[in-house]
Amino acid sequence: MTSALLLDSVTKTYGTGENAVTALREVSLGLPRGTFTAVMGPSGSGKSTFLHCAAGLDRPTSGSVRLGDVELSGLKEAALTAVRRERVGFVFQAYNLMSALTVEQNVELVPRLSGRQVDRDWLLDLLGRVGMRDRIDRRPAQLSGGQQQRVAIARALVNRPEVVMADEPTGALDTRTGRQVLELFRRLVAELGQTVLMVTHDPVAASYADSVVFLADGRIAGQLRNPTAAEVSDRMTHLGEV
Ligand SMILES: Nc1ncnc2c1ncn2[C@@H]1O[C@H](COP(=O)(O)OP(=O)(O)OP(=O)(O)O)[C@@H](O)[C@H]1O
């Protein structure tokens, strides 16, 4: 099966000489299309660096990253920006919606920035799938945190990206609302064949994924398929956290 994302022996070192910090060490991982993967690890284990390298936000010191059929290594900055816009959807803990724009305009902005025609049927379909179809004229301040995150998820999917990268997407939500957002990710993976990569500290959140990848000291320290929250917690304890 083709991988939506393929990292081959990715190493990332920040700084040089005595100040050098190696945040990732020869990380290799492939994400099959239509799968939901969580990345966990203690603080400083390299999760953000992993996400940034995978999304083309940061360049590996060595190794290669392939998004769909595009190899990121050789790309110049402008091409990398275009690939990010087209092929990656981002979901953040803090939603990051534009407060002056309506729900519909926030989602529309993504294809517009790529110079694409907005497919309104798809946009409305997506807003329906995330349960926001009847609130398309609201502004972010008129929505709950969970609703804002649903809009952010629709925005992340509107360009039909190769991968949606979610960085602690439930970090600002209460438990129940957070679970609903995780259920939504599962559903979008199942219904649309979307590939999702999520960084989280929460073993329960990770248990919603098809697979959990554990990072420790910049290396992949294990992987669990169809994980339960208890199994994830147990593995994290052995990595030195929770
Ligand atoms: N821009 C940078 N310059 C120098 N060192 C960095 C930089 N970014 C990250 N690091 C270092 O790389 C290592 C991995 O950091 P990273 O942020 O990827 O970890 P993390 O697992 O996401 O941590 P957390 O869970 O605390 O967010 C850490 O030692 C960190 O201090």
Automatic annotation (TrEMBL):
Positions of the ABC transporter domain: 5-242
Keyword flag Transport: yes
* This protein's GO CC annotations: membrane protein complex; plasma membrane
Signal peptide positions are none
Q: Name one Pfam family in it.
A: ABC_tran
Q: Which InterPro entries match?
A: AAA+_ATPase, ABC_transporter-like_ATP-bd, ABC_transporter-like_CS, ABC_transpr_LolD-like, MacB-like_ATP-bd, P-loop_NTPase
Example GO molecular function? ATP binding
Which UniProt keywords are listed? ATP-binding, Nucleotide-binding, Transport
| Source superkingdom | Bacteria
Task: Kindly give the PROSITE patterns that the UniProt entry links to this protein.
Answer: ABC_TRANSPORTER_1 (PS00211), ABC_TRANSPORTER_2 (PS50893)
Which protein, by its recorded name, is this?
A: ABC transporter ATP-binding protein
Origin species: Amycolatopsis suaedae
